[in-house]
Amino acid sequence: MGTFIAAFVVLLLFFLLMSIGYIVKRTAVAGSCGGLGTLGIDKACDCDDPCESRKTKILAEEARHERLSKQRIL
User: Fold this and answer.
1) For 40, left (φ over 0), alpha (ψ -120 to 50), or beta?
2) What is the C-alpha separation between 48 and 50, in angstroms, rounded?
3) Widest Cα–Cα separation across the chain
4) Given CA atoms 46, 48, 50, 55 in this order, what sign does their dihedral have?
5) Which among 5, 24, 30, 54 could bridge 50 via Cys, Cβ 3.0 to 4.6 Å?
6) What is the three-class DSSP state of 59?
7) Sign of the CA dihedral with 59 first, then 67, 30, and 41 last
């Protein structure tokens, strides 16, 4: 039972630290390899012109990035 409690506390601490990191950085959790961006692929689909919902998401992300860059302290 002690092992279970110790493992649960370590896992809880891990999630707590990840939450604090997300709150401070305001970025999503990302892998270490860089994903498709390291291969020179900008988007996951092969279409030349993205659909309307994809365009809306891209514009919203660009606006969010611009708003966050204006609000940076450092």
Assistant:
1) left
2) 6
3) 57
4) positive
5) 54
6) helix
7) positive
